[in-house]
Each structure stands twice: as C-alpha cells, then as structure tokens.
Amino acid sequence: MVERIDGDALRVIRDAGMGSANPPSCVTRHPLRISSGEPDFVRRVEELSGEAVFACYQCGKCSAGCTFTSGMDLLPAEVMRLLQLGDERVLKSVSPWVCASCLACEVRCPKGVDIAKVMEALRLLDLRKGETGLRWREIPPGVPQIALVGATRKLTP
C-alpha cells in the first residue's frame, strides 16, 4: 500500500495497488475556512484586534499558560475556536472581561496570535452595544486606585 499527499495537502490518498483485495480509500481533510461567508462579527474582531483569528490551530498552549482560567467560563483556546466557528456565544462570555491582558498567551503561542488583543476586541464589541460590565455600586471599599482606573478604562463605553 502506497500513501501519498496530494499537492494541496488537503487530501491523503491511500493506494492499495493493483490486485489488492481492499479497494483504494480516500481520506479528506477539510480546510477550516471553507467559504468567505464568515459572520460579520468575526471580521470585526479581526479588524479591531489586527489578529488573524483563523491562524490559531488549537494547540491549547494559551489556555495552559493563562493564570486567570479559574475565573473564565471559556478557556482562551475555546474563545478562539468559537470565533473560528462563528458562534456568537463568545460575545456573551465573561472570559474577555476576566482577561488581564498579561500576554502570557501570546508568548506561548507558536503562531504568534495575540489573544489579549482578540479579548480586547470582544470587550469593545460588547461595549459598543451599550452593555457594560462595570457597576459602580458593586465596587467594594478599599479597592486600589490602579484597579479602579483599569476597570474604568476597560469597562466603560
């Protein structure tokens, strides 16, 4: 049996050869981006962040290195995958709001995708809808000033 990779590297063709009892089989892998009809919000995330969402190949190193995953409902790799699939549930996730933009994910990413910029773009899209995550009455007394400034910059439209 001879195995070869087709020129576009999307199909692996196994040739059983002449006189074999098993017929030749063809295994196809589909590219991630099948059509250019991706949802508009994915294009806006790419435009706002300047990052190629489809460059991520789901190795999971970003999620393994993130120190804030305990407070996230979706891991960074899951956020990227939902974006690739065009699933708008990612816009309702708390993960972009928990992200501290510490860049541990970017340092670990073999493709150099800056997930912190993607998370920032998701926050911006949420803020542009008029929904904000900052509720002044819920802030406990004694919070450090730098945390208030950061929260104000991050959470107000």
Walk me through this protein's architecture.
By secondary structure, this protein is mainly alpha-helical. It has two domains: 1-31, no CATH class; 40-130, Alpha-helical ferredoxin (Fumarate Reductase Iron-sulfur Protein, Chain B, domain 2, Orthogonal Bundle). Helix content is 38%, strand content 8%. It has seven helices and three strands, in the order βββααααααα. The chain has helices at residues 40-49, 61-65, 76-85, 95-98, 104-108, 115-128, 145-155; strands spanning 2-5, 11-15, 25-28. It has a three-stranded antiparallel β-sheet with strand order 1-2-3, with no helix packed on it. Strand 1 (2-5) and strand 2 form a beta hairpin. Helix 1 crosses helix 6 (115-128). The chain is globular. It starts with a strand and ends with a helix. Residues 1-16 and 27-36 have low confidence and may be disordered.
| Fraction of helical residues | 25-40%
Taking the sheet with the most strands, its summary is:
3 strands, antiparallel
- In CATH, what is the class of the largest domain? Mainly Alpha
Spans of 5+ residues with little confidence (pLDDT < 50)? 1-16, 27-36
CATH superfamily of the largest domain: Alpha-helical ferredoxin
Number of helices: 7
Architecture per CATH nomenclature, i.e. the level-2 architecture of the largest domain: Orthogonal Bundle
| String of helices and strands | EEEHHHHHHH
Strands across the major sheet, in which order?
A: 1-2-3
User: How many beta-strand runs?
Assistant: 3
CATH topology of the largest domain: Fumarate Reductase Iron-sulfur Protein, Chain B, domain 2
Average pLDDT metric: 76
Distance between the termini: 62 Å
**Gyration radius from CA atoms, angstroms:** 21 Å
Total individual domains = 2
Shape: globular
Global structural class: mainly alpha
